[in-house]
Write a structure and sequence with these properties.
Number of helices: 2
Structural class: alpha+beta
Largest sheet: 5 strands, antiparallel
Strand order of the largest sheet: 1-2-3-4-5
């Protein structure tokens, strides 16, 4: 039996593990892109691949975090309200684009 959490399933994270009462998590596969640099400036895409990731969110902390779980460990966190605004804008724009095609 695998100890790896099932991808695509949203779970509540116990306060004892997360430190907050409302944390949730989702394990997924992420596309990770590396960029080539020259003299500190991005030159292009050096490569990409799939990495397992864990996404967490909490209203109590107001943060969404994405942690890469394979390869070089890395975590990116952003404000929950900014993430929600971005997703809402994407949904609105997708609806507008569908209407423009008619």
């Amino acid at each position: 039996m695998s100890k790896e959490p099932e991808s695509g399933v949203i779970r509540n994270v116990p306060k004892g593990r997360s430190g907050v009462s409302d944390a949730v998590e989702l394990f997924a596969n992420a596309n990770v892109t590396a960029f080539s640099r020259k003299k500190g400036r991005v030159q292009g895409i050096a490569g990409s691949g799939i990495a397992k990731c864990r996404m967490t969110a909490s209203y109590e902390t107001g943060v969404v975090s994405i942690s890469l779980r394979s390869g070089k460990p890395l975590m990116v966190s952003v404000r929950l309200d900014e993430m929600m605004a971005l997703l809402q804008a994407a949904a609105t724009r997708a609806t507008e684009a569908r209407e423009e095609k008619k």
